[in-house]
Write a structure and sequence with these properties.
Elements: H1 3-21, E1 25-34, E2 37-45, H2 52-69, E3 77-81, H3 92-97, E4 102-111, E5 114-124, E6 128-132, E7 137-141, E8 145-150
Parallel strand pairs: 2-3
Antiparallel strand pairs: 1-2, 4-5, 4-8, 5-6, 6-7
Helix pairs in contact: 1-2
């Protein structure tokens, strides 16, 4: 397990009782380096959507728990937020919840000169993701997908 994966797993373990106490679910936890800064991000959700008070309550409790455990030696910025309307679908549980919904897919390399596709998420497995547009279904290898996220119209 990489250092990043270890930090994410341990943070999620600390976050689990905090999320339950605040009646939110954990959508994702990520530890990333952007520029010269490290970020520890916790994304929380609930059916009616999270609000700023939910984020603040979880952030304060998680910050205290992280300070007590002190397993991340690097300086980092803690962020707690909603995954948002155009949430990234990174895990199988995210994809499963999005079956039948409109998604956008961005590929690492173009297929037939195109890098971005959209349609209804039809299915997925360990190796592929299948999206249906108006005309037909199209499958993509998961390893060639840079990003899958929910599509939203305003």
């Amino acid at each position: 397990m990489s250092r990043r994966e270890d930090y994410e797993k341990r943070t999620e373990q600390l976050l689990t009782p905090i999320a339950a106490a605040n009646q939110v679910s954990i959508y994702d936890v990520e530890y990333v380096k952007e520029g010269s800064d490290y970020y520890l991000r916790a994304y929380i959700d609930k059916p009616e959507g999270v609000n700023i008070q939910d984020c603040e309550n979880v952030s304060r409790a998680l910050s205290d728990a992280l300070d007590e455990e002190d397993f991340i030696p690097d300086a980092y910025i803690l962020e707690v937020s909603s995954p948002g309307l155009g949430r990234a679908l990174k895990k199988d549980k995210h994809l499963q919840a999005a079956i039948g919904q409109e998604v956008e897919i961005r590929l690492y390399k173009p297929v037939d000169g195109i890098k971005e596709f959209s349609g209804t998420l039809e299915s997925f497995d360990a190796d592929t993701v299948t999206v249906r547009d108006d005309d037909s279904a199209r499958s993509f290898e998961r390893r060639s997908v840079a990003l899958i996220r929910l599509a939203f119209d305003f």
